[in-house]
Amino acid sequence: MGARQFVFPQAGDDLASIADRVLPDTEGASQQLLSWNLHLAARAGQGRGGLLPSDIVFTEPPQA
Amino acid sequence: MLDLVIRNGLIVDGSGLPGRHGDVSIRGGKVVAVGGRAGDAHRVLDATGKVVAPGFIDPHTHYDAQLCFDPYAFPAIEHGVTTVVPGNCSLSLAPLRIDQRDAFSKMFRLIEEMPEAAFDAGVDWRWGEGFGGMLDTLAQDIALNVAPLVGHSVLRMFVMGADAQARAATADELAAMCDALRECLDAGAVGLSTSFVDIDETYRPVPSRWAGPEELDALSAVLGERDAILQIVHEFYDTELTIARIQQLSELSLRHGITTTLSPLFHSDANQRGVSRVMEAVEVARDRGAAVWPQVQTRPIDISFTLDQRSLMLLTMPAWWQVASIRDHADKIAAIADRRQALVDEMNSLAKRPNGGLGAGGFVVRDVVHDRNDDLIGRSIDDIARERGGSHGDTIVDLALDEDLGTWFIRANIGHDNSPVVGDLLAHPYVHVGASDGGAHVGSFSTFGDTGYLFSEFVRSTKSLSLEAAVKKITLDPAQIWKLPGRGLLAAGNAADVVVFDADTIGRGPEIASDDFPGEGVRWIRRQEGVDTVVVNGEITWTADDGYVPDARAGQIATR
Q1: Is residue A19 part of a domain?
Q2: Which domain holds residue A16?
Q3: B396 with B363: CB under 8 angstroms?
Q4: Do B213 and A39 touch (CB under 8 A)?
Q5: A with B: how many residue pairs have Cβ under 8 Å apart?
Q6: Which chain B residue has the Cα nearest residue A6?
Q7: Phi-psi region for residue B186, left (φ > 0), alpha (ψ -120 to 50) or beta?
Q8: Interface mutation vs chain A, best among B156, B215, B230, B240, most A CBs within 10 Å
Q9: Which residue among B28, B234, B239, B263 is least enclosed by CB atoms within 10 Å?
Q10: How far apart are CA A27 and CA B176, in angstroms?
Q11: What DSSP string describes B189-204?
Q12: CB distance from A6 to chain B under 8 Å?
């Protein structure tokens, strides 16, 4: 079994900039990406800051 | 003349091969012969009816602080453990600058749940700042072997100062970190540990989490130069993230020729496919030639707590965490009274979370302060609440306040408690038995006795492993994974780390409270069952008849 495709944030990245890069021409790309990365959504909801350089950001949906 | 002969035991040598009867001969701290009939010796131990095996190796511990004031890592040795790996999860006591000690101490005490009084009284930093100095100091006064990791968070602090928890490293800082890591490895570090999950006492991610993949890649290259290991604590609560980390480790292993290990891996009945999916990912990595070892603990998960101190249980309840963090006891009581409804609501909300199995009704009263409450011991909060009326949260708060917050509660069998499934997992050839967390979380659960439990539950009860396979899992396997030369196998020329035990009775005793740490408070420990004798580098260090040998200090830095 392989892992879902993922990337690590680059310097200055937030989810929107990653979404622009990995999901070009996709409407609502940022929200789409967030929906695939609920571990990051949960952290943001707790007011514990943005992306860390070591964070895994999935760039495809969860496997069924 | 031999120093010691262990006579006529069933020798289970760690290789996994069937045991055979005979003697084990020891001289000068080394095994000189295995099997057959030994010659004369200064001391002879009769092991008739007992198993004679290599000393057990515990690869995931946090004895860093305890070893500063307790050379036995009590009670690890009596369970047969002769070698431990401290410094896991990105945290080691060195290299660290003097002005960073306070910040590090807060981080370590929080993450590993070490009482402040015990840490402050026991850790005197007498070695100064460097990793080599710390090991030199440690080596002078230890009764068991130590193969220490250097912590990535500490390495970052050492090089970057406060910026370690603020940003990625510059090229110069990364080069300095690589140099510092080389120095630690040359001084005796077995590898590097890092964490992708931990936070400090202010909820900030620990320094290692501020490192991007290029930093971990550069540090892994250094590990490759020295044939050293990388340990990570991954997002163990999330299967998808765990699988992604396995892919990351796989790439690092292949690129730099290093062994990697991730811990912990738990089974949960609420996520039946989770562990098997993780193991499928491990098998893919192995098929590619990567060395990726998930660590699996033997014991089920349970957590004990009071409302008087911060604990793992309260970590997920911010309002309670805030109250438990108040130092002055009277202020703490007053805060609970002031914020009572919010605290009760937060406690009651546990049952509504996705893992609703942690609902407060399932907590059980473990110990009480007042005799008048003795009849509550062993009863669930749900049971008591039904009798008294009121919510689960109200019941807990009322009881705790009645006892000046001294009541102990326990939530047993939170997970990893399906023995047949866990047994199959432990027996998997790619699973590394470990993750005991030895020496950490002292107020939440006992980290002692996992080796005994391996035999009592998974050899004798579920029969998931043979005696020989179980011994190999905690001797030769970890010695090979961690590259500890001359250990883990009873063979001529190897270190004489030996445990003698009864295969029919070895196990773990009940979890009991112990007040042996410096300062006030208790920790949870388990004493051994069925162990007869423990020998470290040829020196008898513990026996069932006489307990710990007072002057036994044969422990070594296992990597030197």
Answers
A1: yes
A2: 6-58
A3: yes
A4: no
A5: 56
A6: B244
A7: alpha
A8: B240
A9: B28
A10: 44
A11: --EEEEESS-B-TTSP
A12: yes
Which three-class secondary structure state does DSSP give residue B456?
helix
The CA distance from B259 to the nearest CA of chain A, in Å, is 20
Contact B281 A2 (CB under 8 A): yes
* pLDDT tens column, B82-100: 999 999 999 999 999 999 9
The model's pLDDT over B109-157, given as tens digits with 9 standing for 90+, comes to 999 999 888 999 999 999 999 999 999 999 999 999 999 999 999 999 9
Chain B residues in contact with A11 by the CB 8 A cut-off are 168
Contact B411, B302 (CB under 8 A): yes
User: B266-297 burial, b for 16+ CB within 10 Å, e for fewer?
Assistant: bbbeeeeebbebbbebbebbbeeebbbbbbbb
Considering the entire predicted model, what is its pTM? 0.96
Strand partners, B229: B191, B259
Please report, for residues B2, B17, B21, B492, B556, the alpha-carbon distance to residue B30 in angstroms, rounded to integers and kept in the order given: 10, 21, 20, 7, 13
B93 C-beta neighbours (distance < 10 Å), count? 25
d(CA B113, CA B78): 23
Contact B119, B66 (CB under 8 A): no
Is B209 in Cβ contact with A9 (below 8 Å)?
no
- Examine the predicted complex and report whether its ipTM is higher than 0.90: yes
| Interchain CB contact of B237 with A (< 8 Å) | no
- Say how many residues make up chain A: 64
CA-to-CA distance for B560 and B554, rounded, in angstroms?
Answer: 14
Separation in Å, CA B231 to CA A16, B25, B268: 32, 35, 23
Residue B232 touches chain A, beta carbons under 8 Å: no
Domains, in order of start, for chain B: 56-300+416-508 (3.20.20.140), 303-414 (no CATH)
Q: How many domains does chain A have?
A: 1
B212 and A39: CB-CB below 8 Å?
no
